[in-house]
């Protein structure tokens, strides 16, 4: 931004935001959603949560803590480590583009929903096929394809979510408020599904380890 803030493209973008053009805000929201999905998947904390247990993976069955509690802790670790970075990107985008501060919580909620979906999908994949035979952390990550599959699945989900919103905003001509409700609604449904059905499937996988 420091190098390009006075370039024609950046000035035009800021002009659209200052004018309150819906198209500019649609692009911003879609970009932040894509960023949240991709950054969360690349973090790979959730998609390697069981693999990192290594040869001690069987201890999951003997720890005097319910599977749901263990799974919740693994998910919260991923969320608590990843979300501050996403929130920082959110704040930087709002400040750089001179937007109203109300956009910080709006984007933060959307990005948090993306993170929840990505976390549960990563936990599900790694609990299904953990790579527990490794000598060091590098070989654990290198031999674990769950991160790749999680990234691929999240890319498909993000393209669908953003694609539907983009088509609705540009072809159907819905308002910015309706667009935000549409994106938020889709992400909320995905997050609820992940936290209910997806969470239950993860617990079932833990029982079968």
Total of helices: 8
For the largest beta-sheet, the strand count, sense and barrel status come to: none
Structure summary, number of beta strands? 0
Radius of gyration using CA atoms only: 19 Å
- By secondary-structure content and strand pairing, the structural class works out as mainly alpha
Provide keyphrases for this structure.
mainly alpha; 8 helices; 75% helix; elongated
Short overview:
With 209 residues, the protein is an all-alpha fold. It has helices spanning 8-19, 22-43, 59-62, 67-96, 103-128, 137-142, 146-170, 176-207. Helix 5 (103-128) packs antiparallel against helix 7 (146-170).
Written account of the structure:
75% of the residues lie in helices and 0% in strands. With 209 residues, it is an all-alpha fold. The protein is elongated.
Layout of SSEs?
Blueprint: H1 8-19, H2 22-43, H3 59-62, H4 67-96, H5 103-128, H6 137-142, H7 146-170, H8 176-207
Helix pairs in contact: 2-4, 2-5, 2-7, 4-5, 5-7, 5-8, 7-8
